[in-house]
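Retro notes - structure team

What went well: the batch runner handled both jobs without manual restarts.
What didn't: labels got mixed up in the shared folder, which is why I'm recording both outputs here explicitly, each with its sequence directly above its tokens.

Job 1
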Amino acid sequence: MTLGTNMLDRKLSVYIQAVACDRLFILCDEVVAELHAPLITSLRTMLPEPTFLAVPATEQAKGTDSLARVWSWLADEGATRRSVLILIGGGALLDFGGFAAATYMRGIRTINVPTTLLAMVDASVGGKTAIDYHGVKNLIGAFHLPLEVFVDIDFLRTLPIEELLSGYGEIIKHATLMGVEAWREVCRIGDPVALMDEEWEALIAKSVAYKSSIVEADPEEQGLRRILNAGHTVGHALEAYSHSNLHRRTLPHGEAVVFGLLIESYITTLVRGGSRDYIRQLMYLARELYSPFVYTCKDYPELIRLMRHDKKNNSGKIVLMGILAPGEIEPIELEDEGIIKEGLDFLRETFGS
């Protein structure tokens, strides 16, 4: 990973010159292409005759239609296995663009340029690519590591506050996994909106370094890497449900993960014991940063159905990464839906009250 400011002007074009490829392709989020038009135009001028496509890149667009569009574009423009695809955008674009690259001609090389905080600390690292399918987030996907990741802090300046805080949700999760010192740091920071560039660089570098160390130890999620899914079993269900239910507000991914952490940590205290201090601190932080997500008991069957599609599940049991305390994580297998409903009750009855 290359991290800093002015990355595209100073670093990416130089890197490309050293990469042997027959053709260069750029897939860009259309919002990024508009917000950063001078930068994208400059990049296209500096690079050797790239073929360019701007696409919608919302979570709702992360499906088979977008995947087929990228495949068709690559095929029509003559991409080969010696070509390189540069992905410029947030997590949704890196997910479906990376999956298109992983499957086109059984795999072409990619370079990731994440433009949201969430993509910088999560989607751009680790080689996971996917599309949403059948109402389930990231149901169809593949592992496909990029050649390199260029993280440019300048992109954070144009992020809406809700997108910045969504990305911060994954930083909160990483801090939980890293242990007491990292957890105390995010609690001390509280609201990160006013952080300076150098503070963001340090925070992102630490978060990415941690995730990278886990990925290197377990690249295909056979064991250790599963801890990175803390908060995601419940969080993905809340997120997917919010996108499918017009009567609820849409949950950004990182925000859903924080709510997932709260619910899964509470369930952990019921099943294994655990730190109620951590839950209290996380609740305080979540209340400072996020608005309540309203749901009722009538929503529980659909939320549990979505949880049952989680990739960690085993023999019909719902599997959570149980958080005993910062730095203390263990898998928990649940057969009793009643305990999951107690966890959903906990967030519904306490958050925002």
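Job 2
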Amino acid sequence: MARILLFHSMYGLRPAVLDAAEMLRSAGHEVHTPDLYDGRVVDEPEAGIEIKDEIGQEELLRRAVAAAAPYTDDGLVYAGLSLGGALAQNLALADTKARGLLLMHGTSDLPDDAATEIPVQLHVADPDTWEPVDWQNAWYLRMRRAGADVEVFRYRGAGHLFTDPDLPDYDPEAAERAWAIAMDFLADF
């Protein structure tokens, strides 16, 4: 089973993230859910953006690296939701021992010299205002060029954070399907 580091979205370490971690633990995985917002949790995107901007991208990345440090010796599967996915991707590409990357709702840009052979799975709404199709397609091509084994699953009509039952984007059918596919992906580690 996998050792997973699961990063939260810009909304903070919400119950949906903790519930996802418990679901993964019940499948036998070791899951860690660092709180990059120091306990702050919000329900509105504007409030999440405000916290993210207050902390700053550099500091969020520093906090993510510090959260990963105790677990990297045996190889991690990095995972994240939206903003957390972007952070997970950055860490996975920098970690030569990374075993995989599970992205729920979000990606990040890739450096030109990115190189990895890890399996990557992305679950994203279709369409998604935060992750437009053109961006997703370019991201996919860059990940493939970097050497990653990439699978993309798009959920037609779902909102951006469709796995969080406490947000307006929630889509129970898409969430169930996404987590079932993700669980199969993680079973291989």
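One thing worth noting from job 2: The mean pLDDT is 95.
We'll revisit the folder naming next retro.
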